[in-house]
Amino acid sequence: MFDKCIELLRSRGVELEDIAECVVYLQQKHHPDVTIEEILPTVESIVRKREVQHAILTGIALDIGAERNELFDRELCAILNTDYTLYGIDEVLAYGICNLYGSIALTNFGYIDREKPCIIGRLNSHDSTQCNCFLDDIVGAIAAAAASKIAHGHSSEVKS
Ligand code: MG
Q1: pTM
Q2: Domain coordinates in residue numbering, the chain
Q3: What is the pLDDT of residues 55-107, one digit of tens each?
Q4: CATH tag for 2-153 (out of 3.40.190.290, 3.30.450.20, 1.10.260.40, 1.10.3760.10)
């Protein structure tokens, strides 16, 4: 399942390194010297979780269904293909990932969703025929979850 998710993300233009770059962006303030290579194992550990894999599969399946106009409802296809502003279910699916990593992940997700750095901005640029309605939020949520996991790791270091 992990390999399938990595392959699926890659086929949609997302490498784990791209997600790690978003985590570096989130960590800049607290850890200015952190590198993509240091972050990568944490990103990988997030994608190894079953709930995260299910969110990846579900979100990308809906994106692909929409861009092929294969979802049973034409209006729903149009909503996803245009990334209609008042449609928020893509974010709700992403919350499912954030919820596994606590409130810091949710706060990070809100921030990254507004700023749209790195790959998230590219996925949002609407200059391809690929539907990224769910994918951009999934990528943001994985990055937010990884940043939260790192933050919690550091806080336990401080305590002990
Ligand atoms: Mg979206």
Answers
A1: 0.94
A2: 2-153
A3: 999 999 999 999 999 999 999 999 999 999 999 999 999 999 999 999 999 99
A4: 1.10.3760.10
Distance 71 CA to ligand 1 centre (A): 17
Whole-angstrom Cα distance, residue 151 to residue 54? Answer: 25
Under 8 Å between Cβ of 145 and 97: yes
Helix-, strand-, coil-residue percentages of the chain, each rounded to 5: 75, 0, 25
Q: What is the pLDDT of residues 124-143, one digit of tens each?
A: 887 778 999 999 999 999 99
CB 54 within 8 A of CB 30: no
Residue 21, CA atoms < 13 Å, CB-side half-sphere? 12
Tell me how far the alpha carbon of residue 24 lies from the centroid of ligand 1, in angstroms.
Answer: 21
With vertex at residue 42, the alpha carbon angle to CA 100 and CA 148, rounded to the nearest 5 degrees, is 45
Contact 150, 27 (CB under 8 A): yes
91 is written with which tokens? 């974010």
Give 82 Cα–ligand 1 centroid separation in angstroms. Answer: 10
